[in-house]
């Protein structure tokens, strides 16, 4: 016969088992990962750019976010060393007045991964971006996939690297009107060789909800590598039929993804 004490014990044990089972199911999800729970509604968005660009590459996306009354700041990535680039993001995050979505394109996924542990960051968004693990050699990881065509178009003047015009138009901005791509080429910011040697020491995506936009026509980062990184982090993932510059060729789609991460 079950006593009152035994009955109470059984109820508690059953509730604990159910909680453990539910958590296990959530942890095992490979499609939504940390993004499975409803995101916190926030009003601040910080956006970081990668190589061959500057903060103005986010203009089209920012206009759409501002129309929803979000406070947006584009970081001017110095493209010098990883610590200096991370520092530029951290200083902008320090100035935010509350929870913030941190967004990175291309190389700046490194910055999102490292600086995203900042206490004000509520969610991470990667746009055709690098997403290494803590201490991981991204270059070695990338070499496990076919080399994207843009890599052959990088030229150096001493320690300064940039893309040739042909590679920029064809492999970086391939789905943009030629006239627009030529303007972007004219303002591309050179990067320092030292920037490429840095490794992240933290992986914010292991503790923060993450979203990822894969560019299926990407010729700068291998799309299958993007898919691998997105799946590994458990990010909510979308695929955009776009070049590496989906943030410019498909600003509505990228803005929508950021708004989702912001809880809208």
Automatic annotation (TrEMBL):
InterPro entries: AB_hydrolase_1 (IPR000073), AB_hydrolase_fold (IPR029058), Sec-Metab_Biosynth_Hydrolase (IPR052897). Residues 1-26 form the signal peptide. Keywords: Signal. Residues 45-255 form the AB hydrolase-1 domain. This is Pimeloyl-ACP methyl ester carboxylesterase.
């Amino acid at each position: 016969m079950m006593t009152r004490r035994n009955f109470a014990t059984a109820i508690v044990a059953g509730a604990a088992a159910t909680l453990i089972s539910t958590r296990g199911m959530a942890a095992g999800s490979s499609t939504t990962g940390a993004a499975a729970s409803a995101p916190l509604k926030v009003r601040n968005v910080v956006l970081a750019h990668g190589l061959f660009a500057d903060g103005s590459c986010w203009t089209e996306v920012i206009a759409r976010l501002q129309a929803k009354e979000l406070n947006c700041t584009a970081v001017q990535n110095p493209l010098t060393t990883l610590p200096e680039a991370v520092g530029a993001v951290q200083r902008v995050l320090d100035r935010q007045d509350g929870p913030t979505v941190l967004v990175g394109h291309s190389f700046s996924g490194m910055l999102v991964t490292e600086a995203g542990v900042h206490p004000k960051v509520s969610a991470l968004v990667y746009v055709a971006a690098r997403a290494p693990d803590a201490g991981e050699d991204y270059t070695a990881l990338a070499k496990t996939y076919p080399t994207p065509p843009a890599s052959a178009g990088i030229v150096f003047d001493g320690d300064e690297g940039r893309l040739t015009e042909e590679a920029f138009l064809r492999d970086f901005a391939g789905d943009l009107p030629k006239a627009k791509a030529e303007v972007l080429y004219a303002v591309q910011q050179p990067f320092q060789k030292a920037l490429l040697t840095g490794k992240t020491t933290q992986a914010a995506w292991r503790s923060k909800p993450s979203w990822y936009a894969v560019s299926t026509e990407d010729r700068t980062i291998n799309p299958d590598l993007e898919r691998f990184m997105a799946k590994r982090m458990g990010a909510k993932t979308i695929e955009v039929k776009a070049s590496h510059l989906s943030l410019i060729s498909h600003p509505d789609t990228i803005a929508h993804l950021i708004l989702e991460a912001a809880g809208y």
